[in-house]
Amino acid sequence: MSKQTNLLLYSFRRCPYAMRARFALKLCGIEFEKIEVDFKNKPQAMLDLSPKGTVPVLYFKDSGKIIDESLDIIYWALSQKSPSPLMINDEAKMLIEISDTDFKTHLYKYKYHTRHPDTDPAYHKRESEKFLTQLDKLLSQHSYLLTDEPSIADIAILPFVRQYSLIDSDAFQALPFPHLQKWLNHWLSNPIFKAIMEK
Fold it and tell me: Against a cut of 0.85, is the pTM above it?
């Protein structure tokens, strides 16, 4: 990523929110400088821009503008140079809303169950899989989540499905979700995705 750019992105490689922001920027061919954030020692410059202290944070050097929500970064990137007129639609937004609320809640309580001793990880695993079942059904009809072309939903939901799949990769591969597994493998082998995940 070129450093001769107006855009500075504070990011963390494994964070799903930062991941989808990087993917959208790269997919749209938008150059940006990336600073990898150490959460044990957050940069004061980032905290000055966005006191909530989470990533991603996109900073526009020339104007001082900041965007510190991943979906807002995706929307901005696609508004600049969307690779497809189908990238954003209401159906995609509704699917993202489910992913970012119900699915994420169950996913995190399943993945980080040791932090929530009062919860049942098996319950949250089952609840997570309800959304994965929905995704697999959608993918049985199209190459991507909503059509045969990628939408914003694919970009926004991908990092969370990836995160789920890594909790127990063998268990994920054993699930009856062939279309979802194929979709995930397709994106994980995408050169753009590989580029934004380089260490």
Answer: yes
